[in-house]
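Action item from last week, closing it out:
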Amino acid sequence: MPLLFASKQAEAFAALLDGSAEAGSDQLGTLGNLAQRLSSVPQPQPAFTAALRDQLMSQAGTALPTTAAPTAAGAASAASSSSATGTAGTTSAVSSAATSSAAAGSAVTSTVATSASSVWMPFVAFVAATGVAITGIAAGASLSLPGDPLYGVKRQIEIIQQQFAGGRADTARAQLGFAAARLNEFRALLRKNGDAPLSADLDKRLEQLLADWASNTSDGTTTLLQQLGAGQGDVAALRATLIRFTDSQARGLAAAVQQLPDTQLQSYTGSAFAYLQRVDTALGNPVQVARLLSTLGLALPSVGPSVRAAPGGSASPKPSTPASSAGIPKTTGSAGNNSPADVPTLPIPTDGRPVPRNSIPSVPVPLPTGGSTGRLGGAAGGAAGTAGGTVDNVLGGVTGNGPHLSLPTAVPVPGVGR
């Protein structure tokens, strides 16, 4: 029985994959070895695999060949031809038709069995090859940059990952991961370009990456701060995620902006620093963005903190006290969860309006040492002016006086005592 034999082969192959039996033939052994090798390849997420399997199975009914219909038609044609020979040959024709019909039935059974056996193996190989191809494409796409052939695939995979995120917190973490990826791509494009001037195409791509970074950062941090304030989920883990993200992105942006020759992109980066400062302030200033940037070669003016850090690491707004006639909010803080009692912050707008230029403290720009310092450097004689221009442009984005990214001017502040 060919059909029964094919079914037994399928069962044997399934048992071989489960590890409950050994290969009964060289063919099954070859497939088993292939499956074993494929198991060591990094696999896509289960949800993605299930979606692909459903799509393949839905198309299998129309994609697989069928050969039974032509054989049955041939049998009917033979019977019709035999019956046309006349009355004298009726008995013979009926007998011949019966014999042909029986032969056709046997042929159909044999053909279906052969088709099932011949189609099964290529289909299994196709599914296995598809899994390998998808894994390889995904791995290649993960390393791609804007302008590369697989970059569109990379962004589509991110959309799928976000769609299959478990809940609000997982979706927010995915968005922060995408934001980090955009900054990594931003820096990679700058490294790839080297000391060459930015082309119009590259400048546009860098600007788009910062815009995408802002969108993902805003959505992800807002959601996690809201959940942190409501005490939903693992509060310690939410806080740790926000702190790690704020610290890593401030460091990455500080390194990137000092390689940027474009004044508008420098200002955009400044507005990104301003938003990270807002997030850090809402958390009680654990990162200390202003101090961190100064240690990374980007000395920006700072003012006193505008919120009071509460025990447990949360923070609440405190009525601001004008710093003389400047109008920059300045208050004192209390220590909590390793946050210092008095942390200087960047001079960011607190009411959506730009900080007045005449109220911004001045910070001397340190002269570079050792000849050149990248795009801020060059010859020591002209480096100070370049560095000073970069600081001024970044400061314009920080204070809201220059071009800035589309980022909220306020963030959810976790409640006191949560």
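Closing note: Residues 151-190+199-318+326-369 form one domain.
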